[in-house]
Amino acid sequence: MKNFRFQNKTDIRFGTGRLDVELHDAVSQFGSRVLFVYGGHSIKKSGLYDTVTVLLADLQLTELPGIEPNPKIDSIRAGQKLAKDQDIDVVLAVGGGSVIDAAKVIASAKFYEGDPWDLVKDRGVTRRKLQQLPVVDILTLAATGSEMNSGSVISNPVTHEKLGTVGPNTPAVSFLDPSLTFTVPARQTAAGSMDILSHLLEQYFDRSKNNDASKGMIEGLMRTVIKWAPIALKQPDNYDARANLMWSATMALNGIVSVANENGWTVHSLEHELSAYYDITHGVGLGILTPRWMSFILTKDATTAEMLAQFGRHVWDLEGDESYAVAQAAIDATFDWISRLGFSMTLPEVGIKDTQHFDAMATAAVANASLETRAYVPLSVEDVETIYQASMTDGLA
């Protein structure tokens, strides 16, 4: 196992009934001028908006609504202006990962005099040198893990770029109340669950040696997602299902399971190009691409059979002595599970009818994520195009 450093300072407040007692002090400890960041109408429909505004009535709330599912740089620019004009002390993000992602970049952008796209474009090199306002969040969707990490993913529709950026701090306080996800629609629950599973898979398929502690944690979390996601879809108000998904999402991307890893994130890099060009739901794109990537690497590199077979045996309870056969069965099991979530499983089903952008997308994916050198199985531009092409038709090649 390689040397590593792990540090995470987020104060997690998990469970029901905590907002009424704890939210005011959690926010006001950082000041009275609050930038209240949220998405669409869901928090108003659920009553959460009213709860927040009543609890924080004595503070100066400046609202920034309308954060998109794939947060756009124009929303960050608007937030930067508000943060500067109102001399904001603390950012309160209420929503899913996209809202929290945006809040973290805005929290940095207050201290930057230029265009906040600079803070995204350089992948966080500048952000890590800046101050960052404290961020308090109330999570309403189990998916990205943004509530306990320092990363954000921001899109620029003008340049067709969707890039990750890392800041100096994780959120200061995160409220994780599983009951707030009872009203999440089935499609979003499915997409969020796929995002969680993908985060775990990206860190599981890694060339680091003898990192059994991390691998074991990931296997346990994957089994948890696989078990509870279908239950949450059938029983939206099942607290245990929502709680297990929420905590798995947080654990999947708070840094603890990735310690001592050495490889990059392949499928996320491919999907970021899909949603940069076509603005599709991130989790849906991951669901389409993941089994095709697995099938491709098994064919391209026979050494992957052992790890795929371990995935099959430890996560899917598959049996068999021949690793290649177990590996293929694991890919099939993954494809079937994703399909049962109610997913569209081809790109045309989500509106991507032709291949005109595939070369540009593949080129960007390889360049942005150094896939030819850092991926679990190194991929060329042609390899990535092949995976995109395989995602145009039903089934696995």
Report on the architecture of this protein.
Keywords: Oxidoreductase. InterPro entries: ADH_Fe/GldA (IPR001670), ADH_Fe_C (IPR056798), ADH_Fe_CS (IPR018211), BDH-like (IPR044731). The chain folds into two domains: 171 residues, 3-Layer(aba) Sandwich (Rossmann fold); 205 residues, Dehydroquinate synthase-like - alpha domain (Dehydroquinate synthase-like, alpha domain), CATH 1.20.1090.10. It is built from 16 helices and eight strands. It has a six-stranded parallel β-sheet, sandwiched between helices. It has a two-stranded antiparallel sheet with strand order 6-7. A hairpin with a 4-residue loop joins strand 6 and strand 7. The protein starts with 10 loop residues before the first strand and ends in a 7-residue tail after the last helix. The mean pLDDT is 97.
Instruction: Assess the beta-strand content as a share of residues.
Output: 5-15%
CATH topology tier name of the largest domain = Dehydroquinate synthase-like, alpha domain
Across the major sheet, the strand order is 1-8-5-4-2-3
User: How much helix, percentage-wise, in residues?
Assistant: 40-55%
* CATH architectural type of the largest domain: Up-down Bundle
Poorly predicted runs are: none
Overall number of domains: 2
Organism: Lacticaseibacillus paracasei subsp. paracasei Lpp14
Protein name: Alcohol-acetaldehyde dehydrogenase
GO molecular function, one term: butanol dehydrogenase (NAD+) activity
Keywords: Oxidoreductase
